[in-house]
Write a structure and sequence with these properties.
- It is built from ten helices and eight strands.
- It is of the alpha/beta class.
- An eight-stranded parallel β-barrel has the order 1-2-3-4-5-6-7-8, surrounded by seven helices.
- Helix 3 links the parallel strand 2 (50-53) and strand 3 (79-81).
Length: 261
């Protein structure tokens, strides 16, 4: 497990070494501590690089604490908070995605919640990973909760412009969120964003097949996040292993296509 304050370096080194990586998302509203520990253990064994913990609806600090502590007992990979609100922070995590929903129509989700959460993050000593969050396509529950009008898949240049703005504003990572339960972000959208930015691109929402993960990484994704799939399958290890292998194949294909020298 990397020292506190080194999660970003760990993530970047994983990306440098592997070409692209996988993270597993656990929602405390959907899994209890016991199930979360079981999923995290199997996901880590299958090659996931970090466990993200958070959800859009109905997650309290107490629920988050229980899941974080349970996960940390069974794995040494980083536990990163993915909070839907300031009430879903936990002092026991290794880091927090400090999220600004860039295309929200409500300023609360761009800077207001962040203002409320910042003193808590500082008090808990959590490492901050600043994240420009862009909701595209269907968007799912998160787009409803965050008052966001998702960007259409048919207009990848808009997502690219938002991502570039995120980089210029100093965000360390940019996240393309398609929304759980919907269609995954199309590779052409990821490709447009990749051409626009130099910071790592995280993609999540609707990824259930290794072929999908492979295509996203080939298009330029650095981190692929899956969550719902672990709630739908009985064999978590095999499901995550397949996704991880797809990511590695995509990274290899991207490397082979890259200009030499």
């Amino acid at each position: 497990m990397p020292r506190r304050g080194r999660v970003k370096e760990y993530i970047l080194e994983e990306i440098r070494t592997k070409g692209a990586i996988h993270m597993t998302l656990l929602d405390p509203d959907r899994v209890d501590a016991e199930r979360a520990a079981e999923v995290a253990r199997e996901a880590a064994r299958a090659g996931t690089s970090a466990i993200m913990i958070g959800g859009s609806i109905g997650v309290s600090e107490g629920m988050t604490d229980e899941v974080v502590l349970a996960v940390k007992k069974v794995t040494e990979i980083p536990v990163i908070l993915f909070p839907g609100s300031p009430t879903a922070l936990s002092r026991y995590a290794d880091a927090v995605w400090f999220i600004s929903v860039l295309n929200s129509q409500n300023p609360y989700f761009i800077t207001g919640a962040q203002m409320q959460g910042a003193p808590i993050v500082k008090r808990y000593g959590l490492e901050v990973l600043s994240l420009g969050y862009i909701i595209v396509g269907w968007g799912g529950a998160v787009s409803i909760v965050s008052y966001t009008r998702p960007l259409p898949f048919a207009k990848p240049e808009i997502a690219a412009a938002y991502a570039l703005a995120a980089e210029y504003m100093g965000f360390e990572f940019v996240y393309l969120e398609g929304g759980s339960g919907g269609k995954p972000v199309p590779p052409r959208v990821v490709q447009a964003v990749r051409r626009a930015v130099t910071i790592p691109i995280v993609v999540g929402g609707g990824v259930r097949k290794p072929s999908t993960a492979k295509a996203l990484v080939e298009a330029g994704a650095d981190i692929v996040v899956t969550g719902t799939i672990t709630e739908e399958v009985s064999d978590v290890y095999s499901a995550i292993k397949g996704i991880v292998e797809g990511i590695r194949e995509g990274a290899q294909a991207r490397k082979e296509r890259a200009p030499q020298g």
